[in-house]
Design brief:
With 304 residues, the protein is α/β, with parallel strands linked by helices. A hairpin with a 6-residue loop joins strand 1 and strand 2. The longest helix is centred in the N-terminal third of the chain and has 24 residues. 28% of the residues are buried.
Length: 304
């Protein structure tokens, strides 16, 4: 039997499974609800199975629907790879580029580079969106982002990544803190301090907790913030100490920055899908960024 299914039908199924609602799925696919419902019904008839249980308020997949959705996702993913391979180009990046960037990098890196970045890549229009790491990876998978700037994490193994720079962690303390008289601090010296941390979901917090744990330092949960700026404001009031990346170590009233020994770093990378059609352009942009004199100066600047 010849089947008349097409990729759009499979995308409709994926959308309904995601939203568990026909109208929301139709809106996401930019079609009317009757069109989406009719096409899915035809697909069910051709396959001879019922994909969705429509008897409840929230549309759910049937057992057979669950099994078929796995294969549908494979087909759509392979189709996207095929399109990207066909579109592969060695040309520089051009047109609008949507770039995800994590909140502990964006406010400190972009002011250093954005103006000269636009001047160096005049045929590109850069649009940056701040996102936490998990959201970035999902957006890369969905094609919502061209690439991203984030700290290297184990989950990036399935993506193409380009090393940009290594960034030191430092400890921010109040001028009134007894540690402020030092130039360096060992992690064990933070034992007993009120250690202010970012909230869950920030990979910066995960990395900081990891090297605290390895040094046997207990992390206080007295306060968890959503931005480094909030934590640094509390440090200035002598309400605790916190970790900061080197680029965030700008002059602030009432705050000292101490180097950590042994040195702790994070690796900042570009990440994109392995079959992104403009990998050479990403590599070129990465080389340009890594060599930028303003960035190098910020990363090597002496503090205090």
């Amino acid at each position: 039997m010849v089947m008349n299914m097409n990729l759009k039908d499979l995308e409709y199924v994926k959308a309904i499974a995601h939203f568990k609602h026909f109208r929301k799925a139709a809106d996401a696919c930019f079609v009317s609800q009757p069109t989406l419902s009719g096409q899915v019904k035809k697909l069910e008839q051709e396959l001879g199975v019922t994909l969705f249980d429509r008897s409840t308020k929230q549309v759910t997949l049937t057992a057979k629907g669950e099994r078929l959705l796995t294969q549908i996702n494979v087909i759509l993913e392979q189709t996207q790879i095929l399109k990207e391979l066909a579109a592969t180009s060695n040309e520089p990046l051009q047109g609008k580029l949507t770039i995800g960037i994590i909140p502990t990098i964006a406010p400190y890196l972009l002011p250093v580079l954005l103006t000269s970045m636009k001047e160096a890549f005049i045929n590109s229009r850069f649009s940056f969106i701040e996102m936490q790491t998990a959201t970035i990876l999902e957006a890369l998978d969905n094609g919502e982002l061209d690439f991203a700037i984030l700290a290297d994490v184990p989950e990036l193994k399935k993506y193409h990544s380009v090393n940009l720079y290594k960034e030191d962690f430092l400890v921010a303390v109040s001028h009134d803190n007894s540690l402020a008289q030092q130039k360096k601090v060992a992690l064990r010296e933070l034992q007993g301090c009120s250690l202010l941390m970012l909230s869950d979901g920030h990979c910066f917090k995960d990395q900081a907790q990891q090297f605290c744990f390895s040094a046997g330092v207990n992390v206080s949960s007295q306060y968890q913030g959503n931005s480094l700026e909030t934590l640094l404001a509390l440090v200035a009031m002598d309400d605790g100490v916190t970790f900061v990346p080197k680029l965030a170590c700008t002059e602030r009233v009432g705050v000292n920055y101490l180097a950590i020994y042994p040195n702790q770093q994070r690796n900042i990378v570009f990440a994109c899908r392995k079959h992104y059609p403009h990998l050479s352009g990403v590599e070129q942009l990465g080389e340009w960024l890594s060599a930028h004199p303003n960035l190098k100066a910020k990363l090597t600047k002496s503090l205090n």
